[in-house]
């Protein structure tokens, strides 16, 4: 293993570098680790505590008090296990939130009595033609923002052709679009092309391995939510409390999703860098922490580390310092 691999598996750079130093010199003490990695002894002790908490180091059986890294394959397995556990917990939270929202919306639709507050209402739309008509009308009256959550692949090209003028009109009118697709669209040529066209037109586009439900939110005050079971149509939600919950769900998935340009690298043919990758390199070169870069880019800390790990692999760099030097020589900074 190397530092980029450990970064890609979710470790902070100091943890990755200390672990690699311990693997290179088993039994090394704290002062020597501090010198090897270039951090203070106090920081090394904090890192060792964190590595122990993650079960990535152990006490030597032959030399009591001496800490050793676990075997590389065991470390890889443990880091992957933790990532999978975190992902499963996140998906469970999304599922619980989705089920709560769906239950509340369905109960309100089935209540058969109008709300006392006109703004606290839910419309029930049934039938494909009625749904398309309501969706089209909502798009044409959207003025500031549009959030899409699209958990399906294989949308027919004819449908995409019909949808494009509506999205193009939103972009032309300066509406901010955020579109979230399931990861599978990257290998679905018509949907991948549509997503790239959206991004080229000014939309923000990301993908996620799994998405909780189909959703559209207009101007952060009106949402279209599918109803279950199948055949029940959609609900047009105006209720502020529900809209707030739907936006919270969308933002949580968006924050952990992958920008579409990561992997495509279509934005700079000479360097092969995407806009996200180039911006991240410049932020880190200017001294930003991973946490600051994540906030500036609007992505998760894990995504920052994943992107940086990939860049280090491409630069054949064993540290970020080396990556910075090589990136500068290539004109990436």
Description of the molecule:
The protein is an alpha+beta fold. It has three domains: 3-70, Arc Repressor Mutant, subunit A (Orthogonal Bundle), CATH 1.10.10; 87-259, Endonuclease, Chain A; 262-329, Arc Repressor Mutant, subunit A, CATH 1.10.10.10. Helix content is 54%, strand content 13%. It contains 13 helices and ten strands. The protein has helices at 3-8, 13-24, 30-37, 41-53, 72-110, 128-141, 157-172, 189-200, 240-256, 275-285, 290-297, 301-315, 320-329, and strands spanning 57-59, 67-69, 122-125, 145-150, 176-182, 204-208, 215-218, 222-226, 234-237, 258-259. It has an eight-stranded mixed beta sheet with strand order 3-9-8-7-4-5-6-10, with helices on both faces. It has a two-stranded antiparallel ribbon with strand order 1-2. Helix 7 (157-172) links the parallel strand 4 and strand 5. Helix 5 (72-110) packs antiparallel against helix 9 and helix 12 (301-315) crosses helix 13 (320-329). The longest helix has 39 residues, at 72-110. The protein is elongated, with a radius of gyration of 24 Å.
């Amino acid at each position: 293993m190397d530092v980029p691999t450990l970064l890609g598996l979710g470790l902070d750079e100091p943890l990755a570098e200390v672990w690699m130093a311990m693997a290179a010199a088993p039994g090394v003490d704290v002062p020597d680790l501090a010198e090897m990695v270039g951090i203070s002894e106090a920081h090394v002790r904090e890192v060792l505590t964190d590595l122990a908490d993650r079960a990535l180091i152990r006490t030597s059986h032959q030399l009591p008090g001496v800490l050793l890294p676990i075997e590389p394959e065991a470390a890889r397995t443990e880091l992957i296990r933790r990532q999978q556990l975190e992902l499963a917990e996140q998906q469970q939270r999304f599922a619980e939130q989705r089920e709560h929202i769906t239950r509340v919306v369905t109960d309100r639709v089935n209540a058969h009595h109008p709300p006392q507050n006109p703004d606290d209402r839910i419309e029930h739309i049934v039938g494909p033609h009625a749904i398309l008509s309501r969706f089209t009308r909502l798009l044409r009256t959207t003025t500031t923002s549009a959030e899409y959550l699209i958990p399906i692949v294989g949308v027919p090209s004819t449908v995409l052709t019909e949808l494009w003028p509506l999205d193009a009109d939103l972009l032309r009118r300066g509406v901010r679009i955020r579109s979230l697709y399931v990861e599978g669209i990257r290998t679905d040529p018509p949907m991948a092309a549509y997503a790239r066209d959206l991004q080229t037109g000014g939309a923000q586009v990301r993908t996620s391995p799994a998405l909780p439900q189909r959703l559209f939110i207009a101007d952060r005050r009106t949402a279209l939510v599918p109803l279950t079971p199948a055949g029940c149509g959609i609900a047009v939600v105006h209720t502020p409390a529900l809209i707030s919950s739907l936006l919270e769900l969308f933002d949580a998935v968006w924050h952990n999703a992958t920008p579409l340009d990561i992997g495509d690298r279509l934005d700079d043919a000479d360097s092969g860098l995407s806009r996200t990758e180039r911006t991240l390199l410049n932020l880190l070169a200017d001294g930003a922490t991973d946490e600051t870069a994540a906030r500036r880019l609007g992505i998760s800390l894990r995504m920052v580390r994943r992107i940086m790990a990939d860049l280090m692999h491409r630069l054949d760099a064993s540290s970020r310092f080396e990556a910075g030097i090589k990136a500068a020589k290539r004109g990436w900074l």
